[in-house]
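Morning run. Coffee first, then this:
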Amino acid sequence: MTTTFAGLEGAATVAFSEQDSLRLKQLGTTLRPRLAQLTEDLYNHIQSQPETSNLPGDADQAARLRAMQKDWLEKLLAGPYDGAFGIPSGIWESGISS
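And here it is:
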């Protein structure tokens, strides 16, 4: 079975097979214990760059975004990979604009 994802406006459409799903779940076995550190490293890198050093805002917003990023990565590695996959719930309410 292949699932097709139509992305946000201007984004590509992607075909996603059962084999792709299995690969992500297998990768999750290795990455899941490291997600908190990966997320922390990502935000530390973002804040170390002159162009993005003021992101992601105040400490409360930074904590919310880190938690949301970790949650999205957990979902990425767990599935299911259906039509709603890829867009973290609550992203539009978080204050992030496209």
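The first strand starts at residue 2 and ends at 6. Good start to the day.
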